[in-house]
Design a protein that fits this description.
With about 475 residues, this protein is an alpha/beta fold. It has helices at about 1-10, 10-25, 30-45, 105-125, 145-150, 205-220, 255-280, 295-310, 315-325, 330-345, 355, 380-385, 405-415, 415-440, 440-455, and strands at about 50, 60-65, 70-75, 130-135, 160-165, 170, 175, 180-190, 225-235, 245-255, 280-290, 375, 390-395.
Length: about 475
């Protein structure tokens, strides 16, 4: 096809953009250079770019075209701490850097950029009506950037949104995710000499520990699909001082946002009980929240058809050699877990499990298998899916069994393995968006399914009014 040929012929500029973002590897709500690279790149290509969307400095929307339909492609560019890594098949952090693209967001965002640029070229040349948009979305890893953008209304006029994620397989994302609340519980007590005068102290750390004990007992009495996990972020200065301040950070997850809220209300009672027992005060600080995905099976079928047209990435001997070396760093248990999960979801059969354990790459397009199973993680794409029809897909950008959020992920995101998958993802975006632009009936079918689902269960943003994103200050250049 002409549109795919153009993308192939111009892919090197997108490879360069991906590499630049891989090298920057900036934190959530601190992706100043990464977001500006993409925004400026699209501006130079003739897109109308609006920066600072939803009062977030690193969020932007780039648009081309006029009128309906409005098709959105979502992009991300934040990285993860503690995952600095060179593009080599053994662990070697980059000196002086902490962050790395352990979820391969340098690929995720750049594929969307490549897709909208390609679509603009084709729409101009062929008189295709409608608007294509790229949403530069910060802080997916920690911050719920899209949820804040949804709350600000920036997706309200969008007809369909498309997203993808790098992975160790190729197929439609036909499963759900867990909704989540992220909350700080900050306790305040009274300092005292821990040996000479402990009876006049009131330990905020005791309150945190009692809350955690209560939360662990609560686990027995919540639905088995739910998750409660926490870290103590502040526990005192030194042992001879009764801690006057302490803090614990909780995630509460469940298949539905209503279930998350129910468990969260019970957790608040646990926190207040801990404060009562220790004669301390507790402050509850809601950080962020994500809804579960509202699946759109009609849109998934369209994406599946285009995935099959495009096919999985084709890797050469250099890619295979790199992947073989990476595989040696992955435990048999991790590989078994990944392959078993694919079989559980119906992407491969039970009989194929042993065959795939011997492969370095997932070399096919998985069948479309809609399921009610929820991936035990969360994403702010969920909130977008409640205000506009949204579907996702996966493309192979790493060897089978690669752990998520790992140095192995970072390494492969900086090689041709990742970039070849990225371009395949861009092709799927291009074909799917073009189909929705030119086939009114299919677009109406996608919208109809969405509207039927939200009719009986309207969207409620999980982020309370007044909650602000935790924007990181712009780094001062030396």
């Amino acid at each position: 096809m002409e549109i795919i040929s153009w993308l192939e012929q111009n892919k090197e500029q997108f490879f360069k953009l991906s590499d630049q973002i891989w090298e920057l590897a900036e934190p959530s709500f601190g992706e100043y250079e990464s977001s500006e690279l993409q925004a400026s790149f699209l501006e130079d290509k003739g897109f109308d770019v609006k920066r600072g969307i939803a009062e977030i400095p690193t969020a932007f929307v780039a648009s081309y075209g006029k009128g309906k339909p409005i098709i959105a492609i979502l992009g991300e560019y934040d990285a993860l701490p503690g995952l600095s890594q060179k593009a080599v098949p053994y662990k070697e952090p980059i000196e002086g850097k902490d962050y790395g693209h352990g979820c391969q967001h340098n690929l995720l965002g750049t594929a969307g950029v490549a897709a909208v640029v390609t679509l603009k070229e084709y729409m101009e040349k062929n008189g295709i009506k409608g608007t294509i948009r790229y949403y530069g979305c910060p802080a997916e890893e920690a911050g719920s950037g899209k949820t804040f953008m949804v709350k600000a209304g920036v997706f309200d006029d969008v007809d369909v949104s498309l997203c993808w994620h790098p992975g160790d397989m190729t197929g439609v994302w036909g499963m759900n995710v867990l909704a989540v609340y992220s909350v700080l519980f900050r306790f305040k007590g009274r300092a005292a000499h821990a040996a000479a005068d402990p009876y006049h102290g009131r330990s905020a750390l005791d309150a945190v520990e009692l809350m955690n004990v209560g939360a662990n007992y609560l686990r027995e009495h919540i639905i088995p699909e739910a998750r409660i996990h926490y870290v103590i972020t502040k526990g005192g200065g030194q042992p001879n001082v009764v801690p006057p301040e302490a803090e614990v950070w909780y995630y509460v997850r469940a298949p539905k946002i209503s279930q998350v809220d129910e468990i969260y209300q019970r957790l608040i009672k646990v926190a207040k009980g801990a404060a009562l027992m220790t004669e301390t005060e507790v402050e509850i600080i809601f950080l962020e929240g994500n809804s579960n995905l509202l699946m759109n099976r009609t849109l998934e079928k369209i994406i599946q058809n285009n995935l099959e047209k495009v096919g999985p990435p084709i890797f050469d001997d250099n890619d295979t050699d790199f992947a073989r070396k990476i595989r040696k760093t992955i435990s048999p248990e991790q590989l078994e877990s990944s392959i078993s999960f694919m079989a559980k979801l119906g992407w491969i059969t039970e009989k194929q499990k042993e065959e795939f354990k011997q492969k370095l790459f997932f070399d096919m397009v998985a069948p479309h298998v809609p399921t009610d199973l929820a991936l035990p993680g969360s994403t702010d794409v969920g909130d977008v899916s409640w205000v506009t029809p949204t579907s996702q897909f996966l493309i192979t950008t790493q060897t089978l069994g690669t752990p998520g959020h790992s140095w192995q992920n970072v390494a492969q995101a900086g090689t041709t393995i990742g970039k070849k998958g990225m371009i395949q993802a861009a092709k799927v975006f291009v074909l799917t968006a073009l189909e929705l632009f030119t086939d009114q009936k299919k677009l109406e079918e996608v919208r109809k399914e969405f509207e039927e689902k939200i009719r009986n269960e309207p969207y409620k943003c999980p982020i309370p009014d007044g909650t602000k994103p935790k924007i990181k200050p712009r780094p001062v250049k030396k």
